[in-house]
Amino acid sequence: MVSGFIAYHGFIHVTYSSDTCTWLLSDGRFPGYGVWQPYGCMVHKYTREDSRMCMHYISYWGGHNHITFLGDSRIRQLYFEFVSLLSNQPIETSKAHEDIHFVDDHINARVDFIWMPFVNPEMYKLYKQWMLKAPSERPNLVVTGSATWSIKEFNGSTEALKNFETNLTFIVPYLKKMKESTEIVWTLQDPVLPSQLSPNRSMITNAQIDHYNKVALEVFAKAESSAKIWSSSRLVAQGLKKELVDGIHLSQSALNLVISDL
Questions:
Q1: Closest CA to 11 of 24, 1, 2, 27
Q2: What CA–CA distances, in Å, run from 128 to 65, 109, 123, 179?
Q3: Which of 73, 173, 187, 189 has its CA 20 to 30 A from that of 115?
Q4: Domain assignment of residue 119, yes or no
């Protein structure tokens, strides 16, 4: 089982034009239970030492390690998994619904989680703020995704889906303008396990999830966006759906597999 995680290996490929495995984020299979294999790729088991060495390598060659996770509690899971492999210190849990920051000067690393569960004008403003900064002051990598809060707060309404489409359409041009400095990874929404959802999440159905994923894919395709679509995470979640601890969040074993592809 893949037990490690390092999102930055993908960024290295992008930075140094050696992206030899384009399927890491898109497709794969389960050769055995709890084992995920991207098509045409081998996934390395990264240790904390590997991860920190990677950050040192980027810093040594003049790069800066600034990674941002932008979204809801599902994205926050990815943030904590990433930071736990980088940090030499135990990771403290934080209050829900707030921004979280990790800085390690020894490896020139900054990793942020920005709580932003909706694709709305606030997200648009954030990308605009990044765009106005010098390229060296922007994140190198942004991992993002959204849907469940829109479904929950607006009870799966058609209007909420339309607003999601409109707001994402406004944001996409900024993604294209930032492509020289920032890699954007859009995470497709994982399925849910309805029988395990709490009553206040009962409106988050897999049909609704599919609607939002379809709209996001259509928006990115129509705009010829430079964002990378992370679809393999959804396949892993589907294969291990019975392990969803509360019907919506990945188990630790699923997280390990998902993160190794990023």
A1: 24
A2: 21, 23, 9, 14
A3: 173
A4: yes
Asked if residue 3 belongs to a domain, the reply is: no
Assess contact for 191 and 234: CB atoms under 8 A: yes
Count of the separate structural domains present in the chain:
1
Q: pTM of this prediction?
A: 0.84
Range of the domain at 68: 8-261
Average pLDDT over the chain, rounded to an integer: 84
CATH number of the domain within which 69 lies: 3.40.50.1110
* Concatenated DSSP letters of 41-106: -------HHHHHHHHHHHHHTT--EEEEEEESHHHHHHHHHHHHHH-SSPPPP--TTS-EEEEEGG
pLDDT grade for 12, boundaries at 50, 70 and 90: very low
d(CA 150, CA 145): 12
Q: Indicate which residues carry an active-site annotation.
A: 73, 246, 249
Q: Is the pLDDT of residue 54 over 90?
A: no
Does any domain span residue 193?
yes
